[in-house]
Amino acid sequence: MSVRAATPDDLDAVAALEEECLGADAWSRGLVEAGLAGDVPTVVYLVAEADGPDGPDGPAGDVVGHAVASIVADIAELQRIAVTPAARRGGHASALLDEVVGRSRAGGAERLLLEVREDNAGALAFYAARGFVEVDRRRRYYRDGATAVVLRRGLRKGC
């Protein structure tokens, strides 16, 4: 697999991933389009592509995941990370997260924050295995009323 900066040409793929993976909490096509166009200077969009040969996660070069991060001063926030179900457990989410961490550090961030649904045990385990710890909860954060668990990972020594 490979991870790269997303471009406006990725709009259809990223919008489809939003809908497929995030359902009612998906961002609108217009919001994704603005982000990919660079209209929000603190936001970084990344995509993960399937590498050849064609496999179960799709044809080589197909976008199978995306991540969105906001990096402002000493704080980065992972706003989105999603991988199509056919490509899950193939390392795409880890590669996307690693790229977010690297870009966040390069941008001067000292910590990375994110929210995850409290009922998403798989995501909670994924982040815990990568050094994230719970720092807060946001009641009724999602459209369906679910609680968000706020997670934090230090990016520099002493953070």
TrEMBL record:
Top enzyme class, one word, equals transferase
- One Pfam family in the UniProt entry: Acetyltransf_1
Q: Which UniProt keywords apply?
A: Acyltransferase, Transferase
> EC annotation?
2.3.1.-
GO MF annotations, alphabetized: acyltransferase activity
InterPro entries, per the entry: Acyl_CoA_acyltransferase, Bact_Acetyltransf, GNAT_dom
List the Gene3D superfamilies hit by this protein, alphabetically. Answer: 3.40.630.30
Domain named N-acetyltransferase: residues? 1-156
- TM region positions: none
This protein's species is Nocardioides oceani
The signal peptide here is none
Instruction: Tell me what this protein is called.
Output: N-acetyltransferase
